[in-house]
Amino acid sequence: MPRPRKPTSPFRYFNSSPEVIRLVVLMYVRYPLSLRNVEDLLFERGIDICHETVRLWWNRFGPMFAGDIRRQRVSRMRGFRHWRWHLDEVYVKLNGEMVYLRRAVDHQGARELRHQNP
């Protein structure tokens, strides 16, 4: 009987730890930084990598991290299926001027108001 194969890690050919790779990619994607800015910030924290390494990791691991985040977000949202909201729309007169008012109301009664001139 053959032994079950262990899933191969996508980080297996890299000398850096997966935590550092995730930090680098998420830092580049989350904040408006250039590749060289990410390189400089990490160098200040004692991680010496090249800006081309940041680009390589972003191209290689970015879609994988995005998929993980998307799956986590979907699994968290499954608990909120009971949430309902509706949209109220009305024209009101403010200071003698007609204003279009939109109001999103969720099932708990919390509101978000938006208005714009017609």
UniProtKB/TrEMBL annotation:
Task: Describe the location of the DDE domain by residue ranges.
Answer: 83-110
**Which segments of the protein form a coiled coil according to its record?**
none
Task: Report the superkingdom from the record.
Answer: Bacteria
Protein name, per record: DDE-type integrase/transposase/recombinase
- Lineage of the organism: Bacteria, Pseudomonadati, Pseudomonadota, Alphaproteobacteria, Sphingomonadales
